[in-house]
Amino acid sequence: MRHGIVKDWRHEKSQIPKPKSQIQITMRYLVTARVKKGQRDALRRAIDEGSLGAGSIAGDEYLRDMAQARELADGRVKWVETCFCWTPLQEERPYWEQYFNLTRVQDAHDRRKCRDHNGSEPWACDGCDCTVRLEQKLNNTGKSFMESLRSGELRLIKPLPEPDSGPTK
């Protein structure tokens, strides 16, 4: 730097490309998971209390995901996850892994067709109906995970024994 010349970087800041970690992306992932052994009741309580995902920037998205989740005949659970991280489920993974073993996380649709991802419409995912379409398709498989989770409560309650119908003394 020369004497007496102070360079003002504020005007040039906009010309500096953002680091990869600061660029906002949105993707949809099809998540497949299994509830960890002994965690069904804890998961149900967390959903009922609204504490699932507490502290996460994703907020109520966890509850919405569970409301749309489907349980398959083999016990796997599937849902569509909206994620704003470079690494899939970077924010959400620790919250999900309290209750689930994540078995597969895959792109929910072709990234080339995603208007947000291909740059044709920034933030398109916020108003895009692709999640609705994916969830409608998913809705045709398995059964409601929430119904299955709640019906587990009934399986824990044993019916009262039938009164003895034999002679009484």
Count of domain modules: 1
| Percentage of residues in DSSP E strands | 15-25%
Q: Note the total helix count.
A: 5
Report the radius of gyration as a whole number of Å: 24 Å
Strand order of the largest sheet: 4-1-3-2-5
SS content category: alpha+beta
Mean pLDDT: 78
Number of strands: 5
How many angstroms separate the termini?
Answer: 108 Å
SSE string, helix = H, strand = E? EHHEEHEHEH
Which descriptor suits the 3D outline?
A: globular
Largest sheet, in brief, is: 5 strands, antiparallel
Low-pLDDT stretches are 1-23, 153-160
Word description of this protein:
- This protein has 169 residues and is of the alpha+beta class.
- It has one domain.
- It is 25% helix and 17% strand.
- The chain contains five helices and five strands; from the N terminus they run βααββαβαβα.
- Strands 4-1-3-2-5 form a five-stranded antiparallel beta sheet.
- A hairpin with a 5-residue loop joins β2 and β3.
- The longest helix is centred in the C-terminal third of the chain and has 12 residues, at 145-156.
- Mean pLDDT is 78; it is low at 1-23 and 153-160.
Summary keywords:
5-stranded antiparallel β-sheet; single chain; alpha+beta; disordered N terminus; 169 residues
Summarize the structure.
Helices cover 25% and strands 17% of the residues.
